[in-house]
# Entry
Amino acid sequence: MKAHNVRHAIKGFALIATISVLLLLTMVAVAFLSLSALTVKTSRFEWAQEEARANARLGLMIAIGELQRDLGPDQRIAVSASLLDSNPDTLAIEGVSNEQWTGVVSSRFDQNQNGSPFTRDMDDGGLQDARNGTNFRVRDQVTNYLVSGNEGGRDKMRGARQYQDALTENLPLGKDVVEIVSRGSVRNPRDFVRVRKVVTEKPRLTPDGRTEIRPNGGYAWWVQSNNQKAHVGRPDTHRNSAIDHNNGTGMQRMLHPQDAEPFVIEGIAQGQENRDTRVLTPKTFTIISESNRIGVLNNFHAMTSFSSSVICNVRDGGLKKNLSAFLHNSDNGQAPEIRDLNDPSRPCYIGVSPNDFLIGPPNERHAAIRDVDFNDTQLQDIAPTFELLWNWANLANEFSFGYASTGIREQKIWRGAPSRNGGANVYDQENLRPADPRNLSTIKITPVIVEACVYYNLATYPRGSGSEQEHALRLCLYPRIGLWNPYNVEMRLDKPMLLQLFLNGKKTVEFDGKVNFTREIYYGGRRNTFDGQYGGQVYFKLPAVTIPPGETFIFSMGGAPRELNINQFGANILQAREAPSSDSYLFKDYLLANTSRGQYARDEDNKQSELMPTPPTSYRERPLSYKEHGADNYMFMLKYLQNNPNPTIASFRNEPALVYASVSLQAGGGDEFPLEWPTGTEGVVHQLTGPGDHVDAGNPPHPFSRDGFRVRWLDETASNKGVNNELFLQEAPLGNWNLRASYICRNPYDNLTNRAPYFHGIYTRDNPSDELSWDNLNPVLRNGFQTGFPFGKANFGVDTVVAFEVPTREVGIPSLGYLRHLQLSEYVWHPSYTIGTSVADPKVPTTGTIPTEIPGNNRGWSSAGLGTGYWAQLFSDIVFYLPEKNHLIFDMSYEVNHNLWSDFFLTGGTQNQVANFAQDPVRSPLNNGNLRLWDRNGDPTSDLNDMFRAAGRLMIDGGFDVHSTNKEAWKALLATTRDTGYGSPNRTPFPRTLFPQGQENDKAEYSTKVFTGFRSLGDQEIDSLAEAIVREVKVRAPFFGLSDFVNRRLTEDPTGRNGAIEAALEQSLPNRGQNQQFPITKQSLPNQGGLVAEGNPRQSDLTRSDQLLKPASTGYGTPGYITQGDILQVIGSGLSARSDTFTVRSYGESRDINGRVLAKAWCEAVVQRTPEPVRPDQVTGLNPRVPEDGEVNFGRRFQIVSFRWLHADEV
# Structure
């Protein structure tokens, strides 16, 4: 038998095992190779990503460098390319390829030696703007657009580098262009932003050992202004101060843009229960409500969460000066002198003196900087002073918020005023203590005369009996005087006043329709007989009384009839508690049996007697001689009885004058044609039983007997319109006129018509009209007094009109805009509101600030301007011959805005308030909550109370650049007072005064609430206004300083008519109700031909005042009519004329050797310009030093305040 080996049974196992191990090893090797490849690939990607980030950071640093060079200096402006819109009338931007690019413009005007477009030539229009009449366009002024590829600016482009103009640069998306703002940030493709990539290069070693410069990636960047957006992330620092209408708490929320209102922005729904908290970024709105997401994307260019402004003078350079340091300081109880710093060659270092002027060059140092001869500015005698501001601000120490009271504050008296006509001048020696209109420095608070007139009745009574009986004529005089208190405090007339009224005292009447039955009815004068030129003088005493805020008291006779006393004027006392009645009057009897005026005392017996053989029953005014029976003068004068409560003509002369008004063509220089009643129009002659009898109640005088003056009504009588043409009567009493003035008279530029009453100022005489009947003008009894309405009939339906607000302890002087209530002139032809107002003066060409039409060195106060040499002499005497060296007609609003808005700002705090803020800015914010402490080194208290250093410590949080063309951003700013607790929910109030006497007017349609309360705007009206503002910005920008934005342009085109906001208000919805109810027709006045008046005077032009320059409504300036001043009173303290906060978005990429993009990166930084100069000057270290030849002016230092990397989805 054969034996077998077992091993032979499993033959081949080793081979299989070996193969298996080899496969395993292969798999491991492959895995390691894959891992190695993955590691290499990951490392290469990270390297490329880092390179892309490095390029993005490089782009960011280059962008910041461009910002520092181009926008570091104070006199630089950031403008959006959307300003180049070829059709500004629409919101859509047309004709601009890259509307979201940011350009740079200089506010230095190198074409003028003084570096400013503004020059002054007082012999040729005053202030002038060199941009007028030139093809000055913003597109030509842009020196650089802040986008990648424009490094160095337009003037530095060389070789292959081509300057990119936002207007024309076409950037189709491709390898050389990147969308740096795309669908991750915005929704509308029009909001996308494309910029050109800049290739980065580095040397590479080739295989053959050579060095080549090859691209390794690229960067791109874009800059946008945050200040042209609404800062929606800023809470109201006073949000815990509820508004209290009784004590004024929280009112600072109505006087500053403490925050922006995001919920008026289209697409942002109100999802917050508490508006006092704020989102961190615009995108946080999507957390509040998902419905906000689309709105956030649509408003990427409208909202920001961070913006601040340096408080600098964009027009002249340097930090603005803190006017509060002057207003809240004193020198032994007087206005302080803030001395210049060591370098008065720059406006930012010139101090303030109480005697500095608010119009024209403030002082000699300012004039020297502007290359102006200070001694030839021709405004020096009449310019108001800074001391006036100081005195106004210090009224706050006397008044508390709510119902306050003041006595009469009379104006300064001019002692030894010049008079060249001896005893025959226009004053007839009756005004020996006239108001001083020169260089106003003290505060005047006096009532406004809105009406001064008389009616009359005629009566007869028998004298004697039988055949000897004759009949005496009695004149029954019914005076009617209206005094308006236009202030928000009650006015105590603690001493009586005396009104002199000069009317036609040489009237003649025809009785019973018989041409041979006539009498003269002279009254007043200084003797009991016919007193020639003085026959129209009557004097009425007004008792001491207290007029509540905004009310108009109507004074008339009260009690039994009394004889008119022409010697002891105290006997002619009026009252305001009883309504006028036909049985209460002053009377004058005509009893002369032998008169030298017998030729005018015609009747059947032909005696030279004023007595009549038979009593007439009716009468009609009919002049027997136009020369003999015309008025010698039409005027009134109001005096304050300081010395003699029972005045005579002698004592009257020495009492202080409050108002002198000549409502006359000729100022007493000749008889004006008398009035003749139409044939068939007759008044009743009342039959009395004797001298002790009286006219009974219920027998009112004929309407045509009215003679005197009143302020023009919002809607004039039909008789006035019909005779003189309606256009001449359309005046805004609170627009182009100063009803608080002490001097009211015709000036050379007032309009005239060729028939009586000829002269059309703001005070008028009336043509006969039934609308002026006794019953139609009856006053209204309120709280025990007879009251009226300043601008219409007493029964107009309005009980109070508060036009002006005095400062109070609780409010103080918070901003420049709040100074608008201050009276700056004693002449009626200047505006009631000046600071912040921008309506052109109709008497001044729009190309300048003073008239140029009438030649001569007397500024028009000559026969060429006023009709005859004698008239001119009399009018010149009224204004004390000041026109010989001064312009009295000028655009006061433009001049004062020019001096204040670019140079100054206010902290709005007293020294104690500022000290508290310095120690704890969070718990003790300034009333202007926009101001935040920037430099906290050491104790800032002293600096904050300093005129020059305060702006170096502060910044405006949320400062808004007026160059913004984004409607939604403007809406959020305008609605800053929305839902603050002042007024109705979801409304934006703009109160003229903080303590209005009436109710909120929340309707755009006309309502009498516009006169008593305050106006609030709905969201649609805010939208309309914002859209109109954007249009004006696109038409007018760039603005060379904030004054340039506030003011109109000095040009012939429509921008010369009013400022940007004022023009926008005319074009939008807020005032449409009053504009339709009381319109001013904007058309040229009709040719009046020659003047037809006594003496045949010659005047070359009767219509020198331009109708096109008047406001849109006669109701302009009434409390509920929103004006530019009302808007600036709220938002003005938060405005800036340049941007200081910018968002820089940068892109970087890495490429391989073949140019293929390996990685991309995006970053975003917020960059802030600060008050710190890069190269400080040697004076204070607060301002950049003036660069020497060839030296770059880097201005103030930029800082990065935030940085983040963006994911591609966020772009």
